[in-house]
Design brief:
The chain has ten helices and nine strands. With about 400 residues, the protein is α+β, with helices and mostly antiparallel strands. The chain has a four-stranded antiparallel β-sheet with strand order 2-3-7-6, covered by helices on one side. A three-stranded mixed β-sheet has the order 1-4-5, with helices on one face. A two-stranded antiparallel ribbon has the order 8-9. Helix 1 runs parallel beside helix 3 (about 75-90). The termini are far apart. The structure holds 3-thiaglutaryl-CoA and flavin-adenine dinucleotide (FAD). Its cofactor is FAD. InterPro entries: Acyl-CoA_DH_CS, Acyl-CoA_Oxase/DH_mid-dom, Acyl-CoA_Oxase/DH_mid-dom_sf, AcylCo_DH-like_C, AcylCo_DH/oxidase_C, AcylCoA_DH/ox_N, AcylCoA_DH/ox_N_sf, AcylCoA_DH/oxidase_NM_dom_sf.
């Protein structure tokens, strides 16, 4: 029989359309040529490579699923997933940048914004000229966003915004922030622009995870936001949660890329590392570990592909996204840690990718709903009992 591809044992590639394969190849090339040569150094230095933004925009990776009339690539959901997978094969920080810009900032402007807001912001955001961030989480507890303290009060034609947001990806890079605030009519979204008096961002330092990504706290001290910057077409928690469903969908694919990167590098290493007169890959202990990684990667690939097909049919449900986010991030973090172990001492430096991915995935397993939150969403679905 023809040898199988160790990172695609079930030939998922053959289930993709020509266009989807082309998207995957294009982003894979970008990761190989532009991300991998610099990313270890970016992580060490705690630097997000802003120089890659114009190229990501050029490739159509920002707001990739939104319509072409707003300057976007109009890709389907599976293609967007493949974008996330190939970017995260480079680094979770690069995929985070694309997730936040696309699913958490451009999507709400598209889905909940006015036509003027769409026209004003989306083409510039697709071009990478306007960068966005998404402020939902607050310092007192991100898992329970319904309990938010940030509030907006009507003042004539404007809104006055007060509060704080924590752990915000792209915070100090961003030109605009999509900020969710409590109002007399429930939670609403506002486009807060950099430079509006009273709006400040403060970068989070000392991170051991997602070091090649900007993370910030945002502060709002009587920020005057015009009515034209309120997202008019949604009220309530379903606004931000609807954005999270889009981003979480992409995050089910991303960690497959991180796991593939770790697995590939470690398999090669194990074939070449000779101990007790044979490569460690020739020991049963290491082979079982590598085989088990291949098994788990294959399952995750099938899960995300089917999820993507459901999304493209318009029938994907949030619980299905929760199951895949939980499974696939858990799969990747476990694989990254096991790969780190197989590399021995060599595994503790960023010369090899597993420790970087393992550390990054500590954020991925926490953000966009912690593993526990997703387990409880699935638990609620199967029992009909809300345990939050
Ligand atoms: P509940 O009060 O029952 O529902 C409120 C309304 O929302 C609807 N809904 C959803 N809609 C779309 N997508 C979803 N996933 C939805 N989940 C719920 C729901 O139907 C209801 O609508 P309506 O019309 O009846 O008002 O809320 P719940 O009990 O379902 O929510 C509880 C819980 C814990 C699941 C939710 O609060 C939650 O998901 N918490 C976690 C918060 C979270 O994930 N934060 C992430 C912040 S952003 C981030 O981390 C970015 S990192 C990005 C990067 O760098 O890549
Ligand atoms: P908490 O909600 O305080 O949770 C603490 C612990 O309690 C967790 O282990 C949790 O699983 C557990 N827990 C919660 N509820 C229950 C329960 N009912 N039963 C049992 N255990 C429970 N947020 C944004 O809005 N925008 C961003 O761009 C963004 N980017 C991020 C980037 C990074 C690098 C990180 C680390 C976070 C980012 N976040 C962002 C925030 C992220 O979404 C939150 O960290 C996450 O939702 C968890 O909130 P928390 O950190 O306040 O933890």
């Amino acid at each position: 029989a023809t040898p199988l591809n160790p990172t695609d044992l079930y030939d998922i590639r053959s289930m993709l359309s020509d266009e989807e394969r082309m998207v995957q190849d294009t982003v894979a090339r970008f990761t190989d040529e532009r991300v991998l040569p610099i990313i270890g150094d970016c992580f060490d230095k705690g630097r997000f490579p802003t120089e890659l933004i114009p190229e990501m925009a050029e490739l159509g990776l920002l707001g990739s699923s939104l319509p072409v009339e707003y300057g976007c690539a109009g890709m389907n959901g599976v293609s967007y997933g493949l974008v996330c997978q190939e970017l995260e094969r480079g680094d979770s920080g690069i995929r985070s940048f694309a997730s936040v810009q696309s699913s958490l900032c451009m999507y709400p402007i598209y889905a909940y914004g006015s036509e003027e807001q769409r026209k004003r912001w989306l083409p510039e955001m697709a071009a990478g000229k306007v960068i966005g961030c998404f402020g939902l989480t607050e310092p007192h507890g991100g898992s329970d966003p319904a309990n938010m303290k940030t509030n907006a009060k009507k003042d004539g034609a404007d809104w006055i915004l007060n509060g704080a947001k924590m752990w915000i990806t792209n915070g100090n890079l961003a030109h605009i922030a999509i900020v969710w605030a409590q109002t007399d009519e429930g939670i609403q979204g506002f486009i807060v622009e950099k430079g509006m008096p009273g709006f400040t961002a403060q970068e989070v330092h000392k991170k051991m995870s997602l070091r090649a990504s900007v993370t910030s706290a945002l502060f709002f001290d009587n920020v005057r936001v015009p009515e034209a910057n309120r997202l008019p077409n949604v009220k309530g928690l379903k606004g931000p949660l609807g954005c999270l469903t889009q981003a979480r969908y992409g995050i089910t694919w991303g960690p497959i890329g991180a796991a593939i990167a770790c697995f590939t590098e470690t398999t090669e290493y194990a074939k070449n590392r000779t101990l007790f007169q044979r490569p460690i890959a020739a020991t049963q202990a290491v082979q079982i570990k590598l085989a088990d990684m291949a098994r788990r990667i294959t399952l995750a690939q099938l899960l995300s592909l089917q999820l993507g097909r459901l999304k493209d049919k318009g029938v994907m449900q949030p619980t299905q996204v929760s199951l895949a986010k939980w499974n696939n991030v858990r799969m990747a973090i476990d694989i990254a840690r096991e790969c780190r172990d197989i590399l021995g001492g060599a595994g503790i430096t960023t010369e090899h990718c597993p420790i970087r991915h393992a550390l990054n995935l500590e954020s991925v397993i926490t953000y966009e709903g912690t593993e526990t939150v997703h387990q409880l969403v699935v638990g609620r679905e199967v029992t009909g009992i809300n345990a939050f």
